[in-house]
C-alpha cells in the first residue's frame, strides 16, 4: 500500500530536479541573465509559483543550480587519488579548479562572481572545505609556513583571480603559463620544501600540531578548543 505523503514528496523531488536541470542548461547557454524565474518556469513547463514553493526565492534556485552543476566537479576531485605529497595534491587541486572555471564560466561566475559578506553558495562552501582539507594535510606534514586559514584564503583568492583574469581575455590570448606561474608563486609563499617542524621554534610545531588536533581523542571537546586557540596564537606569532 502506497504512502500518499511519500508519493507527494517523491513528486516534489522529481519536479525540483527537473527544474534545476533545465535551469542549469539555461545557465550554460545564456549565462546568469537567462535564469529569470519566468524563463526557467517556461522552459521547465511549470509555473513561477512552483519555483518559489520549491526553492523559496530566486537565490534559492541559483544555489540549487550551483550545487547541481558543481557536484560532478566535486565528485571528480574526490575520486582523484590524493598525491603522496600533500603539496603536489594542492597543485593538482589548483589545476582542477582553474580548468573547471574555464570550462564552466557561467557556473563559476554564479558561484564566485558576486561575493557577499557572510554568504556563499553551498557549492562554494563545499569547494572551500575541500581546499581546507588539502591545506590541513600540508600543515600535518609540517610543511606549512603560515596559518591554515591564511593559506586557504590566499590560494582561494589567487585561484579565483586567475580564472576571472583568463575568462576576461579572448580565448586565443589565454596563456596557460599565467595559471602555472600563479600556482607556483602561491605554493612557494605558503609551503616549505622540507618539513617546517625541523626548523627550531614553537610556531612551526604549533602549525603541525594544530592540523592533527582533531584526531587527539584523548582530549575532551573543550580541551581541544582551548588548545586550538593557544596553537593558533603561537602559529600567528611566528608568521607575523
UniProtKB/TrEMBL annotation:
Domain HTH tetR-type: 13-73
Gene Ontology MF terms: DNA-binding transcription factor activity; transcription cis-regulatory region binding
Residue ranges flagged as DNA-binding region: 36-55
Pfam families: TetR_N
Keywords, alphabetical: DNA-binding
Protein name: TetR family transcriptional regulator
Organism lineage: Bacteria, Bacillati, Actinomycetota, Actinomycetes, Streptosporangiales
